[in-house]
Amino acid sequence: MLYRGYRRRWGQRKPGNPAREATLTIRFARVTIQGPKRIPRRKEFNGKVGPITVWAIFAHEESPPEGIEPISWMLLSTMPVETFDEAIEKLNGYLLRWTIELFFKALKSGCCVEERQLKSFQRLQNCIALDCVVAWRVMFCTTMGRQVPDLPASVLFEEYEWKALHSYVNKTEQVPEQVPTLGWVVREVAKLGGFLARKKDGDPGMKTLWRGLLVLRSISTMWLIFNRRPRLQR
Question: What is the model's pTM?
């Protein structure tokens, strides 16, 4: 099947490539491909693999701007693709691949989930569930800090967190009545994790942010301790 005129907004992927809108031609069909010659020695394969039936989706940019490489994807799916909407669904899922890779980067490199040494599967499962929440927060803070930096920091940070950060950064006990912006808090937290914040550095990434969040945890904990109301003496 052939469909023309599918439009998609593409963000910047490489330095010097501005965001643009591309028009893609979508083709999809059911195809049969030959199975691999080299296969694992497993009983279920019985020594060979026959032809494999899959659905192929080809998305190609027919008329890219001059000097820019056209977008051209060939996707193979075991899920049925019999309509244009189903083809677009698979393409939109493929567009999330980079987001998924970033999530697992935060999960493996930031939370060090592969280094967990727990004795039982249940304990490991519970630990990974918590690590997923932490990885999601790091990734969400990074994304929101870039896309909507003017939002109040209270949408992602507790009051004591941004107050502790403000006191630490400005070396003062006085905190502002107005909540600072999310962009400012994310940037300052990233500085705690090693972000240099130079003009050409752009926005902070997840690595400096997750390091900074660890430091912020210690800062905010001490801020809570030192700002407790003194108990009345009897």
Answer: 0.70
